[in-house]
C-alpha cells in the first residue's frame, strides 16, 4: 500500500480553475486563498500537486498555451488561402475567444506581460 492519501480532485480541472484566477486577477493579485478556493483544494494539496504559487503559475501558463493559444494557429496552416486571409482568420479566432461569453475577457498572456513589465513576476522561468 502506498503511503499518503490518494488525490481526490481532478488535477486538470484544478489547474484550469487556477489559470482563470490568474487570468482575472493577475499573478500578483491572485492570493493563495483565491487560488485554493477556485481549485477546491487546501494549501497542502496545492503544494503537493503543483508546487508553490510560481510553479502553479508556470503550469497555468503552459496550460493556456497548449489548450487555448495553440488552437488559433490552425488558421495559419491553410496553405490554400492567401496569407492575408489566414492572418485575418487567426486574429478573428483569437478575438472571438477573448471576447466570448465563457471565461475571462482579454488575453491571458497580455495580462501576464502587462503585469510583468511593472512587477516582480516569474517571467524567466521558461
TrEMBL record:
<protein>
    <submittedName>
        <fullName>Transcriptional regulator, AcrR family</fullName>
    </submittedName>
</protein>
<dbReference type="InterPro" id="IPR009057">
    <property type="entry name" value="Homeodomain-like_sf"/>
</dbReference>
<feature type="domain" description="HTH tetR-type">
    <location>
        <begin position="8"/>
        <end position="68"/>
    </location>
</feature>
<dbReference type="Pfam" id="PF00440">
    <property type="entry name" value="TetR_N"/>
</dbReference>
<dbReference type="GO" id="GO:0003677">
    <property type="term" value="F:DNA binding"/>
</dbReference>
<keyword id="KW-0238">DNA-binding</keyword>
<keyword id="KW-0805">Transcription regulation</keyword>
<dbReference type="InterPro" id="IPR001647">
    <property type="entry name" value="HTH_TetR"/>
</dbReference>
<dbReference type="InterPro" id="IPR023772">
    <property type="entry name" value="DNA-bd_HTH_TetR-type_CS"/>
</dbReference>
<keyword id="KW-0804">Transcription</keyword>
Amino acid at each position: 500500500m502506498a503511503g499518503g492519501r490518494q488525490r481526490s480532485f481532478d488535477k486538470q480541472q484544478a489547474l484550469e480553475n487556477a489559470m482563470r484566477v490568474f487570468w482575472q486577477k493577475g499573478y500578483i493579485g491572485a492570493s493563495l486563498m483565491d487560488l485554493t478556493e477556485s481549485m477546491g483544494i487546501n494549501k497542502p494539496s496545492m503544494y503537493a500537486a503543483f508546487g508553490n504559487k510560481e510553479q502553479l503559475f508556470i503550469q497555468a501558463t503552459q496550460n493556456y498555451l497548449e489548450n487555448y493559444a495553440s488552437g488559433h494557429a490552425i488558421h495559419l496552416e491553410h496553405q490554400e488561402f492567401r496569407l492575408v486571409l489566414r492572418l485575418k482568420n487567426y486574429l478573428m479566432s483569437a478575438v472571438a475567444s477573448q471576447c466570448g461569453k465563457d471565461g475571462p475577457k482579454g488575453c491571458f498572456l497580455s495580462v501576464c506581460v502587462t503585469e510583468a513589465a511593472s512587477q516582480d513576476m516569474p517571467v524567466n522561468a521558461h
